Amino acid sequence: MSETSEKPRTPTLTPDEVIAAQRSRQLTIISVVLLLLAGAVAAHRFAAPSETPTGNVEVAKFNADDIMGIEIHAAQGERLKLSRDGAVWRVVNRFNALADAEEPGILVKKIAGAKRLARPVTEDAQRFYLYQLNDEMAAHVILTDKAGKEVIHLLVGKGDNASSDYIRYAGKDGPAGIYELVDFGGSFDTIRARLKLDEENRPQPREWLQLDSFKTLPRDFDATRILIRDHDVEIELQSAPDPRDAGKRIWSMVRPQADFGNQSAVTGALEAIRNLRGYDVAGRPSPQGTELGLADPKRYVEIRYNTPGEGSRPESLRVDFGNRRGTEVAVWVTGESRGEFIWWVNDGVLARVFRPVEEFTDVAPLPPPGPAIVQECRVQHILVSWNGQPVTLKQPRTKKQARLLAEEVLAKARAEGSDWKALQKEHNEDSMDPHASYAIHPGANLAPEFMAMGQSLKVGEFGLAESAYGYHIIKRTE
């Protein structure tokens, strides 16, 4: 019997063994792919340039105390130059007048402490205008040291909401592009807001001035003399204590004629001088005084006054008025601790101070009413007033003319057979019903002079009183 050779038999795999073999092959393939990807990433990182880091960085590194000069300018318009003089700042292009005591220092410290995003918002010059940082629109800020060397030069812009600063660095030393500043407190506390720019991004030197260095009269004062020179006319008035009221003074005209002074006109002129506010420095008395019409002024005011309090002494003030510029007029105030600069002020002061002579004159005061005979009564009146009072006049008139008219109406009212209602209709300038009746009693809200006269009259009697509204021809009716 012959032997028959047999082929080796392939072992039969179980289903679990088949699945395990397939998984092993898949893992091998995935491992190879991952190794290839890791190598590609490593090769890319090695070959690619490093990226700009994220986060915040300082805008510049300098000591705020080393800054001695600030310049702010736009593409067009006036340049603002500030210079530190010891502990104070001065506005160079305002004749070295004192700058605001705080603003320059705040701006310098704000720039010194500013941080920006590390990555630029854009480096595309075509998009700079979106942040008002193209060459035509940007505002420049330059800080210099004591040697006049430039420490930093920034172009400052803004975004759509104006609540953030955007900057460019000038020159080649700074990084290119536009950067957003961070950590500021909104649109009122940005660097741009501190630059005090106008609508065309130009600096406004007048906004940097220390305006309280412009001084006229103190808040509390007692004037004893005022001289008003208006070209060839001089008006001089003097005051003396009112014997009837220790808290008041009586004004008398000395020039151009002796007369009673108009208290309200003088008070108005003095208050106009006291309330003057300097808006901008126009120059110094020399040499700018000549070109501003102040070398030989045609209009000026001299005031002698006392300030209340122990140790008070007489002081003098003079205000010269020069040329006008738009709605402003140049003034030079001289007196104690005054007179270094000529200022621009609102020209509305001219109409309140330089008035016709007759407006500064007055009539003799009315005699006081007799003693009160009643506390409560009813009266009617006819009000006759004059220019400048808070009353609608039937026709313009001075106080002298109003006094003459009031005395004429009083005489007619007292005349036998007079028609009181007709006189009221013709002359009464009371804004209420011309025939209105007023109840006088201790709590009535009426002018005290009006009440005192009414309480001194008998029923049917007439009297004349003066109040802040004008002259009252009063008739007691009840």
Explain this structure to me?
By secondary structure, this protein is an alpha+beta fold. The protein folds into three domains: 56-211, Immunoglobulin-like; 214-362, no CATH class; 377-476, Chitinase A, domain 3. 21% of the residues lie in helices and 30% in strands. The protein contains nine helices and 24 strands. It has a ten-stranded antiparallel beta sheet with strand order 1-6-10-9-8-7-2-3-4-5, with helices on one face. It is elongated and about 150 Å long. 30% of the residues are buried. Residues 1-5 and 46-52 have low confidence and may be disordered.
Pick out its properties.
478 residues, alpha+beta, Immunoglobulin-like, Chitinase A, domain 3, 3 domains, ten-stranded antiparallel β-sheet, 21% helix, 30% strand
Explain briefly what this protein structure is.
This protein is an alpha+beta fold and 478 residues long.
How are the SSEs ordered, and which strands pair?
Elements: H1 15-47, E1 56-58, E2 69-73, E3 80-85, E4 88-91, E5 97-98, H2 103-112, E6 115-117, E7 139-144, E8 150-158, E9 165-169, E10 179-182, H3 191-194, E11 222-230, E12 233-242, E13 245-255, E14 259-261, H4 263-274, E15 280-283, H5 288-291, E16 299-306, E17 315-325, E18 328-335, E19 342-346, H6 349-353, E20 361-362, E21 377-384, H7 399-414, H8 420-427, E22 438-440, H9 448-455, E23 462-467, E24 470-476
